[in-house]
């Protein structure tokens, strides 16, 4: 880690790539917090502790607002919907654009969070999509446990404790809720990040009627099931994300062999999580480009 000037926002360039990879292992449950702290000790120099290093890499949700909750162009509310095959009643953040053409109602987009619940960053992504003209909804996969607890460490442990199939069904139920929601054009897309990116791929298999998907650095589906995908997919990947990128060649081969509509963008010199604007792994240029491409993809396949 390099010396910092006060108040300057940290970026990935301020950390050794080995340390960023180590944090990725911790954030995805491949090593424990204790293991991270033990192994991060090699960077603890000049009075800096491993605990402090972890703190600098963790999300700062004071940064997580590009669209204000009271933005006059949108209306947001927390709603609930049933998930009979999942964990029960699910709380979700539903945001609508305020101005719509009654002759051209908006499409809807499901936003699937990372492996830690519906945190402020994902809520902001929901608002951004509503600001772009879509009805957007972000379910909280931690609803059955009381919802996102306010910090990612606890949220990560809570999500890990849930039955994986039931949790997946909660998001499937969210897709079905949007499909039956009044005031849309009936076309449903989905985007998701990390864990949520993998859910988008699974949604595409489970719901051939899904109109478009944009998974960000998510686990890829079983190649044998790719033939069932009908939704055009825009796959967004980070060039330094060895864990997820190792899955991509087989997925790409299956998409090609089954003649599926897709685009893949691999952003150079960025890490897993580069779209999350609350952590040092955030890359502003790549994140903005990826988001512009996502919105354009949805406008192409969901509008009209």
UniProtKB/TrEMBL annotation:
Q: What range(s) does the YqhI domain occupy?
A: 9-42
Q: Which UniProt keywords apply?
A: Hydrolase
Q: What is its EC number?
A: 3.1.1.45
Primary enzyme class: hydrolase
InterPro entries linked: AB_hydrolase_fold, Dienelactn_hydro, Dienelactone_hydrolase-like, YghX_hydrolase-like, YqhI_dom
Concerning Gene3D superfamilies, the annotation shows: alpha/beta hydrolase (3.40.50.1820)
Domain called Dienelactone hydrolase: residue spans:
91-302
The record's section on Pfam families has:
DLH (PF01738), YqhI (PF23678)
Question: Does the entry feature the keyword Hydrolase, yes or no?
Answer: yes
Q: Which GO terms describe its molecular function?
A: carboxymethylenebutenolidase activity
Enumerate the NCBIfam families for this protein. Answer: hydrolase_YghX
Would you tell me the protein name for this molecule? Answer: Carboxymethylenebutenolidase
Give the originating organism. Answer: Limimaricola variabilis
Origin organism lineage: Bacteria, Pseudomonadati, Pseudomonadota, Alphaproteobacteria, Rhodobacterales
